[in-house]
Specification:
The complex is a heterodimer of chains A (105) and B (279). Chain A has 105 residues and is an alpha+beta fold. Chain A has helices spanning 39-47, 58-78, 86-99; strands at 4-8, 22-23, 29-31, 52-56. Chain B is mainly alpha-helical and 279 residues long. In chain B, helix 1 (6-14) packs across helix 12 and helix 9 packs across helix 10. Chain B starts with 5 loop residues before the first helix and ends in a 5-residue tail after the last helix. Classes of the chains: A alpha+beta (105), B mainly alpha (279).
Chain lengths: 105, 279
């Protein structure tokens, strides 16, 4: 399995590390390899017409996705009997949003 | 089904261990208004486990002095006497009812859940300008009836957990179906036996039934904190599912989902700073 992966910017997850420099359409450097992406940086890159980036460690990304999916599945189970209640549905969404990417304690 | 007789329950509860003598002495010193830090810290130092846990809380990142507090007297100054009182009392209760090793409920998980509820109750109480230490204690003890039932009626409580698993219901509903009473009622009896303040007794008795009765604020605070602790997946309440949050309690605690979102990191921070109590 490769240590890097090129992914469309709109599928990039905050916290990923750039494995290669990001250049604009004219080949001018925008971001250096090693930068950890955050939401603002992704928005900036989109504005500069960047459509994809190469990020480090595919395994890390897969782990993040797996963790996120496990978290959502766990929350779904915990709330399973009360999601017909609008207040609990709202709480479910709030916890999901708050947890986004964080491991379950 | 083994419906319990309230008189038998009360008799068994009276046999449960009380708070250790040293803990009672520290609380009595504080309650008499004798807040001489030298005397209080000398008392606390007589119990190594108590001292280590208090130092653990004082050195948690929450208070910003990680690893710098090595004297109990400094911990008392940093945390403040009301917090020291509730910590000493909490450690006493956790040691008095740790849960049985072969029990169907996970004692450590239950106390983790209780500390999560205590943390939530403290944060909510602060937002309402209600005594945060009283709320912390009420949160910590809200499920004490589960441990009391499990310790005093082990066979009957095993039947409760089996009923819960077979019927995929909440533990409280299984308790009512099998025993004819739930942990909130038994917890209230134990709290009265321990001569805890009325606000704590009421909160323990009514934290699941705030919609049914005109409620006091502490029961509402503990109810909301209980649901939040479960939603944050802190510890193990003995339920796989989260019960419904009472809209009335939410309203009476002057909270809404927007305010709760802001509180979530604070609750986890208070939990992280006090989880040392069960180490």
């Amino acid at each position: 399995m490769s240590d890097t992966e090129t992914v469309p910017l709109d599928q990039t997850l905050v916290g990923m590390t750039l494995a290669e420099d990001v250049l604009d359409a004219r080949g001018m450097p925008l971001l250096a390899k090693g930068v950890i992406l955050d939401a603002d940086t992704c928005t900036l890159l989109m504005r500069r017409g960047v459509q994809q980036v190469t990020i480090a460690r595919k395994i890390e990304m897969q782990e993040r996705l797996n963790r996120q999916q496990a978290l959502e599945a766990r929350l779904q189970t915990r709330f399973a009997q009360v999601l017909d209640d609008p207040l609990m549905e709202e709480l479910f969404e709030a916890i999901k949003q708050y947890r986004g990417g964080q491991p379950i304690s | 089904m083994t419906t319990l007789n309230p008189v038998d329950v009360e008799q068994k509860i009276r046999k449960l261990p009380a708070l250790p003598e040293l803990v009672m002495q520290v609380i009595a010193l504080i309650d008499r208004g004798e807040v001489d830090l030298g005397t209080i810290s000398k008392k606390i130092k007589q119990d190594q486990s108590l001292s280590l846990k208090i130092l653990g809380v004082a050195n948690s990142s929450f208070y910003g002095f990680s690893g710098q507090i090595s004297a109990i007297k400094d911990a008392c100054i940093l945390l403040g006497i009301p917090t020291i009182r509730s910590l000493v009392m909490s450690i006493g209760f956790i040691n008095a009812l740790p849960g049985r090793k072969d029990a169907p409920l996970d004692g450590r998980g239950l106390w983790q859940h209780a500390i999560g509820v205590a943390a939530g109750a403290r944060v909510i109480a602060q937002s309402m300008r209600v005594n945060p230490e009283l709320a912390f204690s009420a949160g910590l003890l809200h499920d004490i009836g589960k441990l009391a039932l499990e310790t005093s009626f082990p066979k009957e409580y095993l039947a409760v957990t089996q009923y819960r698993d077979q019927n995929a219901c909440l533990l409280r509903d299984a308790e009512t179906a099998v025993l004819g009473m739930d942990h909130a009622i038994v917890g209230g009896m134990l709290a009265q036996h321990w001569h805890l303040p009325d606000a704590i007794c009421n909160a323990i008795q009514r934290h699941h039934s705030t919609d049914l009765l005109p409620s006091n604020s502490m029961a509402d605070i503990v109810h909301v904190a209980d649901i939040l602790s479960r939603a944050l997946d802190i510890g193990d309440s003995g339920d796989d599912w989260i019960p419904k949050l009472s809209g009335a309690s939410l309203q009476r605690t002057q909270l809404d989902l927007a305010k709760i979102k802001v509180m979530l990191p604070d609750i986890e921070a208070v939990y992280a700073s006090t989880t040392v109590l069960i180490h």
